[in-house]
Amino acid sequence: MRSFKTINGRIVPVDDISDNVWVRLTKPTADEISLVARTFNVDVTDVSASLDREEGSRFEILENGTLLLVDIPYENVKDGISTYDTIPLAIINSDRAMVTVCQMESSIVEKLSDRSVPNVTLDDRVDFILKILYGISLEYQQFLRKINARCKKIEARINGSMEDTDITELHQLELSSVYFITSLRACNVVLDKMDRYIEKSNDKANLDLLYDVMIENEQAIEMATVYREVIDSTRELLIAVMNKKLNSVMKWLTSITVILSIPMIISGIYGMNVILPLMYDEFAFIYIMIFSIAVCVIGMFILRRKKLL
């Protein structure tokens, strides 16, 4: 639990959780949730709403403020492989303080707390929330570009040395794009509700910023949709190329089997206990070997002409 306050036009950390502060909760304990809820007269369920990973995005008007719940993207690196998912972020704007709650460190919130984003203060709470949402949309776009870059790397390997994990990686990337599209569309619903809420207050400056957020969110949805289609087509191409290579190997093995069966048939015939041509000739073995080799060479020539070998 960390607290911040606007002093001399800048957001700076403070030690207490008094009025007009921003309380940033990251993976909070039950005691911290109870303390914040009790201090700012907020329902405990609202403070802990984002701790449920299945919680849907929403915008609610509370008795003494508003609750905004949206999904934010994050990157999970395991064994050197990155996967992408979403996790809820709660933003509570009460009449006494601003509270953000998340299960993990958020780079968007981190940038605001370390003053990486210019012209951000707690004096205008709505502006502060909209800048968080704007940063979330940009973060989605950044991760989507990473997904597209990884898809292009796999596509570049299709005609070269493909790996067995390529199909699995494409599946994970497609799942990530599906999660992103679902979360972004839910965020669109939240932004529409905020639009009606801000219009009632006749706040034109924040309304313009909200429209910018909506544009960036729509752009992120479009990017995710396009990249998902690209991933799907790349996966189909990868499967087609793998099937073609497998068919080529099977065709080659079948042709070799046919060629090798010729001397086996000849040797089988001459292995019968009956009277056969050349059976009393001292050069019979040489003749039979030459004949077998000649038939194999002719067979290979015919198969190659038909592009079966």
Sum up the structure in keywords:
Beta Polymerase, domain 2; alpha+beta; 7-stranded mixed sheet; 309 residues; Methane Monooxygenase Hydroxylase, Chain G, domain 1
Which value, in Å, is the CA radius of gyration?
Answer: 34 Å
Spans of at least 5 consecutive residues with low confidence: none
The 3D shape can be described as: rod-shaped
**Helix and strand sequence:** EEEHHEEEEHHHHH
- Tell me what the CATH architecture of the largest domain is: 2-Layer Sandwich
What does the average pLDDT come to? 85
Q: What is the helix tally?
A: 7
Task: Provide the fold topology.
Blueprint: E1 2-7, E2 10-14, E3 22-26, H1 30-39, H2 44-47, E4 58-62, E5 65-78, E6 81-94, E7 98-102, H3 107-113, H4 125-156, H5 165-201, H6 204-269, H7 284-305
Parallel strand pairs: 3-7
Antiparallel strand pairs: 1-2, 1-3, 4-5, 5-6, 6-7
Helix pairs in contact: 4-5, 4-6, 5-6, 6-7
Description:
The protein has helices at 30-39, 44-47, 107-113, 125-156, 165-201, 204-269, 284-305; strands at 2-7, 10-14, 22-26, 58-62, 65-78, 81-94, 98-102. The model has no long low-confidence stretch (mean pLDDT 85). Helix 4 runs antiparallel to helix 5 (165-201), helix 4 packs parallel to helix 6 (204-269) and helix 6 packs antiparallel against helix 7 (284-305). It is built from 7 helices and 7 strands. A 7-stranded mixed β-sheet has the order 2-1-3-7-6-5-4, with helices on both faces. It folds into 2 domains: 2-244, Beta Polymerase, domain 2, CATH 3.30.460; 245-305, Methane Monooxygenase Hydroxylase, Chain G, domain 1 (Up-down Bundle). The chain has 309 residues and is α+β, with helices and mostly antiparallel strands.
